[in-house]
Specification:
Helices cover 40% and strands 14% of the residues. The protein is an alpha/beta fold. It binds 4'-deoxy-4'-aminopyridoxal-5'-phosphate. 4'-deoxy-4'-aminopyridoxal-5'-phosphate binds next to α3.
Length: 384
Protein backbone atom coordinates (compact mmCIF):
# COMPACT_ATOMS: atom_id res chain seq x y z
CA UNK A 1 0.00 0.00 0.00
CA UNK A 2 1.37 3.44 -0.88
CA UNK A 3 2.29 5.45 2.23
CA UNK A 4 2.62 9.23 2.05
CA UNK A 5 2.42 8.88 -1.73
CA UNK A 6 5.37 6.50 -1.81
CA UNK A 7 5.41 2.96 -3.13
CA UNK A 8 8.22 1.67 -0.98
CA UNK A 9 10.18 -1.18 -2.57
CA UNK A 10 13.45 -0.74 -0.70
CA UNK A 11 12.88 -3.11 2.21
CA UNK A 12 16.28 -4.74 1.68
CA UNK A 13 17.86 -1.41 2.63
CA UNK A 14 15.53 -0.83 5.57
CA UNK A 15 11.89 -1.68 6.26
CA UNK A 16 9.41 1.19 6.06
CA UNK A 17 6.99 2.25 7.37
CA UNK A 18 7.62 0.71 10.77
CA UNK A 19 4.57 -0.75 12.54
CA UNK A 20 2.99 1.77 14.95
CA UNK A 21 3.77 -0.68 17.78
CA UNK A 22 7.47 -0.03 17.15
CA UNK A 23 7.09 3.73 17.53
CA UNK A 24 4.98 3.29 20.68
CA UNK A 25 7.51 0.92 22.25
CA UNK A 26 10.34 3.33 21.53
CA UNK A 27 8.43 6.21 23.08
CA UNK A 28 7.82 4.09 26.19
CA UNK A 29 11.52 3.32 26.41
CA UNK A 30 12.20 7.04 26.46
CA UNK A 31 9.46 7.67 29.04
CA UNK A 32 8.29 5.30 31.78
CA UNK A 33 11.10 2.82 31.03
CA UNK A 34 13.67 5.54 30.44
CA UNK A 35 16.28 4.62 33.08
CA UNK A 36 19.64 3.00 32.51
CA UNK A 37 19.19 -0.79 32.70
CA UNK A 38 21.41 -2.89 34.97
CA UNK A 39 22.91 0.23 36.57
CA UNK A 40 20.70 2.08 39.04
CA UNK A 41 18.02 0.32 41.11
CA UNK A 42 15.17 2.85 40.95
CA UNK A 43 11.93 2.13 39.18
CA UNK A 44 12.83 3.74 35.86
CA UNK A 45 16.01 1.68 35.66
CA UNK A 46 14.22 -1.50 36.71
CA UNK A 47 11.59 -0.93 34.03
CA UNK A 48 14.37 -0.51 31.47
CA UNK A 49 16.05 -3.71 32.69
CA UNK A 50 12.77 -5.59 32.46
CA UNK A 51 12.23 -4.26 28.96
CA UNK A 52 15.65 -5.46 27.79
CA UNK A 53 15.15 -8.86 29.42
CA UNK A 54 11.77 -9.36 27.77
CA UNK A 55 13.04 -8.05 24.44
CA UNK A 56 15.89 -10.57 24.45
CA UNK A 57 13.41 -13.41 25.08
CA UNK A 58 11.05 -12.19 22.35
CA UNK A 59 13.75 -11.95 19.68
CA UNK A 60 15.44 -15.19 20.79
CA UNK A 61 12.15 -17.11 20.62
CA UNK A 62 11.40 -15.77 17.13
CA UNK A 63 14.80 -16.85 15.81
CA UNK A 64 14.76 -20.25 17.51
CA UNK A 65 17.48 -19.43 20.05
CA UNK A 66 16.90 -21.69 23.04
CA UNK A 67 18.74 -19.67 25.67
CA UNK A 68 18.13 -15.92 25.28
CA UNK A 69 21.57 -15.22 26.77
CA UNK A 70 23.07 -16.53 23.54
CA UNK A 71 21.36 -13.67 21.67
CA UNK A 72 23.38 -10.47 21.91
CA UNK A 73 22.26 -6.93 21.14
CA UNK A 74 24.77 -4.98 19.05
CA UNK A 75 24.58 -1.65 17.21
CA UNK A 76 23.91 -3.32 13.86
CA UNK A 77 24.60 -6.21 11.55
CA UNK A 78 27.86 -4.66 10.34
CA UNK A 79 29.06 -4.25 13.90
CA UNK A 80 28.02 -7.81 14.74
CA UNK A 81 29.84 -9.28 11.75
CA UNK A 82 32.98 -7.33 12.67
CA UNK A 83 32.65 -8.55 16.25
CA UNK A 84 32.34 -12.19 15.26
CA UNK A 85 34.96 -12.22 12.50
CA UNK A 86 37.58 -10.16 14.34
CA UNK A 87 36.86 -11.90 17.63
CA UNK A 88 37.18 -15.34 16.10
CA UNK A 89 40.01 -15.13 13.60
CA UNK A 90 43.70 -14.63 14.32
CA UNK A 91 46.74 -14.37 12.05
CA UNK A 92 47.51 -17.81 10.59
CA UNK A 93 43.84 -18.87 10.58
CA UNK A 94 42.16 -19.87 7.34
CA UNK A 95 38.63 -18.81 6.44
CA UNK A 96 36.51 -19.97 3.51
CA UNK A 97 33.92 -17.41 2.39
CA UNK A 98 31.43 -17.09 -0.45
CA UNK A 99 32.49 -14.92 -3.36
CA UNK A 100 29.28 -12.86 -3.23
CA UNK A 101 29.40 -11.30 0.23
CA UNK A 102 28.27 -7.83 1.24
CA UNK A 103 31.02 -5.43 2.24
CA UNK A 104 29.96 -5.95 5.87
CA UNK A 105 31.73 -9.32 5.52
CA UNK A 106 34.16 -8.64 2.67
CA UNK A 107 35.80 -5.59 4.23
CA UNK A 108 36.46 -6.98 7.73
CA UNK A 109 37.86 -10.09 6.05
CA UNK A 110 40.07 -7.93 3.82
CA UNK A 111 41.34 -6.17 6.95
CA UNK A 112 41.99 -9.54 8.57
CA UNK A 113 43.74 -10.78 5.43
CA UNK A 114 46.10 -7.83 5.71
CA UNK A 115 47.03 -9.02 9.20
CA UNK A 116 47.74 -12.61 8.15
CA UNK A 117 44.41 -14.45 7.97
CA UNK A 118 44.15 -16.58 4.84
CA UNK A 119 40.87 -15.86 3.02
CA UNK A 120 39.72 -18.35 0.39
CA UNK A 121 36.65 -17.76 -1.79
CA UNK A 122 33.93 -20.27 -2.69
CA UNK A 123 32.56 -19.97 -6.23
CA UNK A 124 28.85 -19.54 -7.02
CA UNK A 125 26.61 -20.73 -9.87
CA UNK A 126 24.94 -18.48 -12.44
CA UNK A 127 22.16 -17.62 -9.97
CA UNK A 128 24.66 -16.57 -7.31
CA UNK A 129 24.31 -19.69 -5.14
CA UNK A 130 27.33 -21.25 -3.48
CA UNK A 131 28.57 -24.39 -5.22
CA UNK A 132 28.54 -26.99 -2.42
CA UNK A 133 30.95 -29.44 -4.08
CA UNK A 134 33.51 -26.71 -4.55
CA UNK A 135 32.89 -25.52 -0.99
CA UNK A 136 33.51 -29.00 0.41
CA UNK A 137 36.74 -29.34 -1.58
CA UNK A 138 38.03 -25.97 -0.41
CA UNK A 139 37.22 -26.61 3.25
CA UNK A 140 38.80 -30.08 3.12
CA UNK A 141 41.96 -28.74 1.46
CA UNK A 142 43.57 -27.28 4.59
CA UNK A 143 42.75 -26.74 8.28
CA UNK A 144 40.00 -24.11 8.34
CA UNK A 145 38.77 -22.06 11.30
CA UNK A 146 35.56 -20.73 9.78
CA UNK A 147 33.22 -20.93 6.82
CA UNK A 148 31.42 -17.63 6.29
CA UNK A 149 28.35 -17.12 4.14
CA UNK A 150 25.32 -14.91 3.75
CA UNK A 151 21.97 -16.59 4.33
CA UNK A 152 20.38 -14.63 1.48
CA UNK A 153 21.87 -12.21 -1.03
CA UNK A 154 20.91 -8.53 -0.99
CA UNK A 155 21.60 -8.41 -4.75
CA UNK A 156 20.27 -11.61 -6.29
CA UNK A 157 17.94 -12.78 -3.55
CA UNK A 158 19.67 -16.18 -3.78
CA UNK A 159 19.19 -18.26 -0.66
CA UNK A 160 22.45 -19.94 0.30
CA UNK A 161 22.66 -23.56 1.51
CA UNK A 162 23.69 -22.51 5.01
CA UNK A 163 22.66 -25.76 6.71
CA UNK A 164 24.76 -27.80 4.25
CA UNK A 165 27.68 -25.41 4.68
CA UNK A 166 27.37 -25.84 8.45
CA UNK A 167 27.60 -29.63 8.01
CA UNK A 168 30.67 -29.25 5.81
CA UNK A 169 32.26 -26.85 8.29
CA UNK A 170 31.59 -29.14 11.25
CA UNK A 171 32.92 -32.24 9.47
CA UNK A 172 36.22 -30.43 9.08
CA UNK A 173 36.42 -28.84 12.52
CA UNK A 174 35.41 -25.34 11.40
CA UNK A 175 32.59 -23.09 12.58
CA UNK A 176 29.90 -21.64 10.34
CA UNK A 177 29.27 -17.89 10.50
CA UNK A 178 26.16 -16.66 8.67
CA UNK A 179 25.13 -13.16 7.67
CA UNK A 180 21.37 -13.14 8.12
CA UNK A 181 20.79 -9.49 7.18
CA UNK A 182 18.46 -10.34 4.29
CA UNK A 183 16.96 -13.51 5.71
CA UNK A 184 15.80 -12.62 9.22
CA UNK A 185 12.21 -11.43 9.05
CA UNK A 186 11.71 -12.58 5.45
CA UNK A 187 12.47 -16.32 5.64
CA UNK A 188 11.89 -18.72 8.48
CA UNK A 189 15.07 -18.71 10.55
CA UNK A 190 15.27 -21.43 13.17
CA UNK A 191 18.70 -21.26 14.74
CA UNK A 192 18.07 -24.40 16.78
CA UNK A 193 17.92 -26.27 13.45
CA UNK A 194 20.10 -24.33 11.03
CA UNK A 195 23.47 -25.39 12.40
CA UNK A 196 25.12 -21.95 12.25
CA UNK A 197 27.57 -21.35 15.10
CA UNK A 198 27.25 -17.61 14.74
CA UNK A 199 24.38 -15.77 13.05
CA UNK A 200 24.17 -12.01 12.66
CA UNK A 201 21.17 -9.91 11.60
CA UNK A 202 20.09 -6.31 11.22
CA UNK A 203 17.27 -5.12 13.43
CA UNK A 204 15.98 -2.53 10.98
CA UNK A 205 15.30 -4.64 7.91
CA UNK A 206 12.96 -7.64 7.96
CA UNK A 207 12.78 -7.64 11.75
CA UNK A 208 10.93 -4.28 11.50
CA UNK A 209 12.89 -2.48 14.22
CA UNK A 210 14.61 0.89 14.06
CA UNK A 211 18.12 1.57 12.81
CA UNK A 212 20.87 1.32 15.42
CA UNK A 213 20.26 -2.24 16.56
CA UNK A 214 21.30 -5.69 15.39
CA UNK A 215 21.63 -9.13 16.89
CA UNK A 216 24.35 -11.74 17.13
CA UNK A 217 23.64 -15.35 18.00
CA UNK A 218 26.64 -17.20 19.36
CA UNK A 219 26.14 -20.91 19.91
CA UNK A 220 26.62 -21.95 23.54
CA UNK A 221 30.09 -23.42 23.06
CA UNK A 222 31.53 -20.60 20.97
CA UNK A 223 33.33 -17.68 22.59
CA UNK A 224 35.01 -14.93 20.57
CA UNK A 225 37.17 -12.06 21.82
CA UNK A 226 34.86 -9.15 22.61
CA UNK A 227 35.40 -6.18 20.31
CA UNK A 228 34.59 -3.53 22.89
CA UNK A 229 35.31 -3.33 26.61
CA UNK A 230 33.60 -1.07 29.13
CA UNK A 231 31.01 -0.89 31.86
CA UNK A 232 28.63 -3.79 32.23
CA UNK A 233 26.75 -2.73 35.34
CA UNK A 234 28.25 -5.54 37.44
CA UNK A 235 31.59 -6.95 38.54
CA UNK A 236 32.88 -3.37 38.29
CA UNK A 237 36.03 -3.98 40.35
CA UNK A 238 37.59 -6.16 37.64
CA UNK A 239 39.45 -4.72 34.67
CA UNK A 240 38.45 -7.59 32.41
CA UNK A 241 34.95 -8.02 31.02
CA UNK A 242 32.65 -10.48 32.81
CA UNK A 243 32.74 -13.89 31.16
CA UNK A 244 28.97 -14.38 31.34
CA UNK A 245 26.66 -13.72 28.43
CA UNK A 246 25.33 -11.33 27.36
CA UNK A 247 27.41 -8.99 29.57
CA UNK A 248 30.74 -9.88 27.97
CA UNK A 249 29.59 -8.65 24.59
CA UNK A 250 27.42 -5.67 25.51
CA UNK A 251 29.73 -3.11 27.13
CA UNK A 252 28.23 0.32 27.75
CA UNK A 253 24.68 1.59 28.09
CA UNK A 254 22.50 -0.39 25.70
CA UNK A 255 20.29 1.39 23.12
CA UNK A 256 17.10 0.67 25.05
CA UNK A 257 14.74 2.56 22.70
CA UNK A 258 16.13 0.65 19.72
CA UNK A 259 15.93 -2.66 21.60
CA UNK A 260 12.31 -1.87 22.54
CA UNK A 261 11.48 -1.04 18.94
CA UNK A 262 13.11 -4.22 17.69
CA UNK A 263 11.20 -6.37 20.18
CA UNK A 264 7.94 -4.70 19.17
CA UNK A 265 8.69 -5.33 15.49
CA UNK A 266 9.51 -8.94 16.20
CA UNK A 267 6.32 -9.31 18.25
CA UNK A 268 4.37 -8.19 15.16
CA UNK A 269 6.25 -10.79 13.12
CA UNK A 270 5.52 -13.40 15.75
CA UNK A 271 1.83 -12.91 15.01
CA UNK A 272 2.08 -12.42 11.26
CA UNK A 273 5.17 -14.24 9.98
CA UNK A 274 3.56 -17.35 8.49
CA UNK A 275 1.15 -15.35 6.39
CA UNK A 276 3.52 -12.44 5.78
CA UNK A 277 6.41 -14.53 4.45
CA UNK A 278 4.04 -16.32 2.10
CA UNK A 279 2.61 -13.02 0.91
CA UNK A 280 6.06 -11.51 0.36
CA UNK A 281 7.02 -14.52 -1.73
CA UNK A 282 3.85 -14.22 -3.81
CA UNK A 283 4.37 -10.52 -4.39
CA UNK A 284 8.06 -10.92 -5.21
CA UNK A 285 7.13 -13.57 -7.80
CA UNK A 286 4.60 -11.22 -9.36
CA UNK A 287 7.21 -8.46 -9.43
CA UNK A 288 9.79 -10.74 -11.02
CA UNK A 289 7.32 -11.90 -13.66
CA UNK A 290 6.25 -8.35 -14.45
CA UNK A 291 9.79 -7.00 -14.72
CA UNK A 292 11.06 -9.99 -16.73
CA UNK A 293 8.30 -9.43 -19.30
CA UNK A 294 9.59 -5.93 -20.16
CA UNK A 295 11.60 -6.07 -23.40
CA UNK A 296 15.35 -5.65 -22.84
CA UNK A 297 15.15 -6.45 -19.12
CA UNK A 298 17.47 -8.94 -17.41
CA UNK A 299 16.62 -10.27 -13.96
CA UNK A 300 19.61 -11.28 -11.83
CA UNK A 301 19.70 -14.40 -9.69
CA UNK A 302 17.32 -17.36 -9.37
CA UNK A 303 14.74 -17.71 -12.13
CA UNK A 304 10.98 -17.72 -11.62
CA UNK A 305 9.94 -20.74 -9.58
CA UNK A 306 13.29 -21.09 -7.80
CA UNK A 307 13.41 -20.03 -4.20
CA UNK A 308 14.70 -16.57 -3.36
CA UNK A 309 14.43 -13.88 -0.71
CA UNK A 310 11.92 -11.18 -1.76
CA UNK A 311 14.56 -9.17 -3.63
CA UNK A 312 14.53 -8.68 -7.40
CA UNK A 313 17.40 -6.85 -9.13
CA UNK A 314 17.25 -5.98 -12.80
CA UNK A 315 19.31 -4.37 -15.54
CA UNK A 316 17.81 -2.90 -18.68
CA UNK A 317 19.83 -3.00 -21.86
CA UNK A 318 19.23 0.69 -22.58
CA UNK A 319 18.21 2.52 -19.41
CA UNK A 320 20.99 3.04 -16.85
CA UNK A 321 20.14 1.86 -13.32
CA UNK A 322 20.64 5.31 -11.79
CA UNK A 323 18.34 6.91 -14.31
CA UNK A 324 15.66 4.26 -13.88
CA UNK A 325 15.73 4.63 -10.09
CA UNK A 326 15.66 8.43 -10.40
CA UNK A 327 12.70 8.41 -12.81
CA UNK A 328 10.81 5.94 -10.63
CA UNK A 329 11.23 8.14 -7.59
CA UNK A 330 10.73 11.55 -9.15
CA UNK A 331 7.88 10.74 -11.55
CA UNK A 332 6.10 7.84 -9.90
CA UNK A 333 6.98 7.90 -6.19
CA UNK A 334 8.47 4.41 -6.41
CA UNK A 335 11.40 3.97 -4.01
CA UNK A 336 14.07 1.46 -5.09
CA UNK A 337 17.85 1.29 -4.92
CA UNK A 338 20.28 1.49 -7.83
CA UNK A 339 24.02 0.82 -7.85
CA UNK A 340 26.25 -1.87 -6.40
CA UNK A 341 24.31 -2.32 -3.14
CA UNK A 342 27.55 -2.44 -1.07
CA UNK A 343 28.18 -5.82 -2.66
CA UNK A 344 30.54 -5.36 -5.62
CA UNK A 345 31.53 -9.05 -5.47
CA UNK A 346 27.95 -10.16 -6.02
CA UNK A 347 27.69 -7.82 -9.00
CA UNK A 348 30.99 -9.11 -10.35
CA UNK A 349 29.60 -12.66 -10.18
CA UNK A 350 26.50 -11.53 -12.08
CA UNK A 351 28.51 -9.58 -14.68
CA UNK A 352 27.06 -6.26 -13.52
CA UNK A 353 30.11 -4.82 -11.75
CA UNK A 354 30.30 -1.98 -14.29
CA UNK A 355 26.65 -1.03 -14.45
CA UNK A 356 25.21 -2.08 -11.11
CA UNK A 357 21.49 -2.86 -11.14
CA UNK A 358 18.15 -1.60 -9.86
CA UNK A 359 16.93 -3.51 -6.85
CA UNK A 360 13.24 -3.85 -5.95
CA UNK A 361 12.69 -5.37 -2.54
CA UNK A 362 9.45 -6.40 -0.91
CA UNK A 363 8.45 -6.38 2.74
CA UNK A 364 5.54 -5.91 5.12
CA UNK A 365 2.88 -3.62 3.71
CA UNK A 366 3.72 -4.10 0.02
CA UNK A 367 0.67 -5.08 -2.01
CA UNK A 368 0.05 -6.58 -5.43
CA UNK A 369 -1.27 -3.20 -6.56
CA UNK A 370 2.04 -1.62 -5.49
CA UNK A 371 4.17 -3.95 -7.57
CA UNK A 372 1.78 -3.72 -10.52
CA UNK A 373 2.09 0.08 -10.42
CA UNK A 374 5.86 -0.16 -10.09
CA UNK A 375 6.13 -2.56 -13.05
CA UNK A 376 3.95 -0.28 -15.16
CA UNK A 377 6.16 2.68 -14.24
CA UNK A 378 9.30 0.73 -15.19
CA UNK A 379 7.68 -0.23 -18.49
CA UNK A 380 6.87 3.42 -19.25
CA UNK A 381 10.41 4.59 -18.45
CA UNK A 382 12.09 1.78 -20.39
CA UNK A 383 9.86 1.88 -23.42
CA UNK A 384 9.67 5.68 -23.73
N1 LIG B 1 24.82 -8.07 4.94
C1 LIG B 1 23.91 -7.94 3.97
C2 LIG B 1 23.66 -9.10 3.02
C3 LIG B 1 23.18 -6.74 3.85
O1 LIG B 1 22.28 -6.61 2.89
C4 LIG B 1 23.44 -5.69 4.77
C5 LIG B 1 22.68 -4.38 4.68
N2 LIG B 1 22.69 -3.77 3.46
C6 LIG B 1 24.40 -5.88 5.76
C7 LIG B 1 25.06 -7.09 5.82
C8 LIG B 1 24.75 -4.82 6.75
O2 LIG B 1 23.65 -4.46 7.52
P1 LIG B 1 23.64 -3.07 8.32
O3 LIG B 1 23.82 -2.01 7.28
O4 LIG B 1 22.27 -3.06 8.92
O5 LIG B 1 24.74 -3.10 9.31
Amino acid sequence: MAHDGIIYLDHAATSWPKPPEVLDAMARALGPAGGNPHRSAHRLALEAARLVLEARSTVAAFLGVRDPRDLLFVPGCTFGLNMVLKGLLAPGDRVVVSSVEHNAVARPLAALAASGVEVVQMPVDEAGRVDLDAAEELVAEAPTRAVVCQHASNVTGAIQPVADLADIAHEHGAVLVADGAQAAGHLKVDLAELGADAYVASGHKGLLGPQGIGVVYLSPGLEVRELVQGGSGGDSGALSMPVVRPDRYEAGTPPVPAIAGLAAGVAVLGREADELFEQEQRIARRLLEGLAAIPGMRVLGPVLGEERAPVVSVVHEEVEPDRLAYELDSRYGVAVRAGLHCAPAAHAAMGTAETGAVRFSVGRGVTEADVDAAVEAVREVCLA
